Amino acid sequence: MNEHNPDLTIDLRNDMSPAERRAYIQKWISRNQRRIASGLGASILTLPLMAQAQTAMDMVNALDIAGVRSVALNADGSAQLTLANGQQVQVAASAVQVAADGTLLISTAAAELVAELVASGAASGAAGAGAGAGFGSAGIAAAVGGLGLAAAAAGGSSSSDSAPELPVFNFSSFTGTGSKPVTLQDIFGSAAADLRAEDEVTITIGTGEDARELPVRFDETANDGEGAWVVDLTPEQIEDLPQGQQTLNFSAVRTSEDDEEETLEGEITINIDTIAPEITIETPIAGDDVLNKAESGADLTIEGTAKGAEAGQEVTVTFNGQTFTAIVEGEAWSLTIPAADLAALDLDDGESYEITAAVSDKAGNPAEPATTTLATDFSAEI
């Protein structure tokens, strides 16, 4: 293939397993990153569309993909995904459906490719994270099975005049809660793709005199059993991390067969937010925490505070098995349950019902849910 051809293609086969596709993409990115960064490669990275005709069972909620911050439906039926680092991903209309409740769904094939590219460091690397990480200063626009990834790197461009937001690392980013340990490749992208178990690896946070080393270890079970270097922090160490914009560096020293030392290095600037918000429910509800007959036929207001949660964050309130939502404004929230919805809860007289409120901040740190109870008394005189 001509080195200056604007279309770089990967021959992904339909019979490849997800792990094989991910490994193929990771190796290709690692192999081509220097050529792309130097400007000799393409401005467009094209992957073939692997999806066949989609059914409802083949579609997933785009917001369920790790690293996707928001989604929007375009006039032509395509969808625009905004990633945690501010980059934009365009999903072709042929791979998009809108559910009856308005939820934007994309094909599982498209979702897998987005997740694989993010995991392999293509997205974070393209953001111009730093030396050795990702695609350097090249601006990359990628069509991934009908997806367009607009990467605003140094010297590149994006659909916005402002620079993309820094990748955000929350508490679970360092613990792998519910998924897997965070690997150095998750953090530094393809710059850390070639690390080996026998390498001497160190990772530091901060610069100059403020720099400190973070514990790492080689996890043989990580990366689908292929093994990878992972950050190994305890909950106490995570809570002690400096917040806000921080610089992470890694270095790996290995000895070649000729007894010569080789050093691999990478750097990335991230935004650390590991502090969870705090949510409360203001009491008494209904004046005395007891819902009487008259009050059961009127609108019911439940409100509280959400310290540390940004404006616009969604509060989820659960009441007798039903879920209601409110929006944070000025670290406070207020929910009004219409009389008809309150009646539909089918509350019994003389019972006590638990009400729970939950919220997460923009970084994804969940607050400890707040809980209170509301009693009913429909027979008492008013």
Describe the structure.
With 382 residues, the chain is of the alpha+beta class. It is built from eight helices and 25 strands. It has a seven-stranded mixed beta sheet with strand order 1-2-9-10-6-5-4. Strands 11-17-16-12-13 form a five-stranded mixed beta sheet. The chain has a five-stranded mixed beta sheet with strand order 19-25-24-21-22. Strand 4 and strand 5 form a beta hairpin.
List keywords for this structure.
single chain; 382 residues; alpha+beta; five-stranded mixed beta sheet; 8 helices; 25 strands; disordered N terminus
Summarize the structure.
This protein is of the alpha+beta class. It has eight helices and 25 strands.
Shape: elongated
Helix content: 10-25%
Report the count of strand segments. 25
Unreliable segments of 5+ consecutive residues: 1-13, 31-57, 120-163
The biggest beta sheet is recorded as:
7 strands, mixed
What value does the Rg take, in angstroms?
A: 25 Å
Mean pLDDT: 74
Distance between the first and last residues' Cα:
84 Å
Strand % is 25-35%
Q: If strands are numbered along the chain, what order do they take across the biggest sheet?
A: 1-2-9-10-6-5-4
Set out the fold topology.
Elements: E1 7-9, H1 18-37, E2 44-47, E3 59-61, E4 68-73, E5 79-83, E6 88-91, E7 96-98, E8 104-107, H2 108-120, H3 122-126, E9 141-144, E10 147-150, E11 168-169, H4 171-175, H5 184-188, E12 200-205, E13 212-214, E14 216-219, E15 228-231, H6 235-239, E16 244-255, E17 261-272, E18 278-279, E19 290-292, H7 293-296, E20 300-307, E21 314-319, E22 322-327, E23 332-337, H8 339-344, E24 352-358, E25 370-377
Parallel strand pairs: 1-2, 2-9, 11-17, 19-25
Antiparallel strand pairs: 3-8, 4-5, 5-6, 6-10, 7-8, 9-10, 12-13, 12-16, 14-15, 16-17, 18-20, 20-23, 21-22, 21-24, 24-25
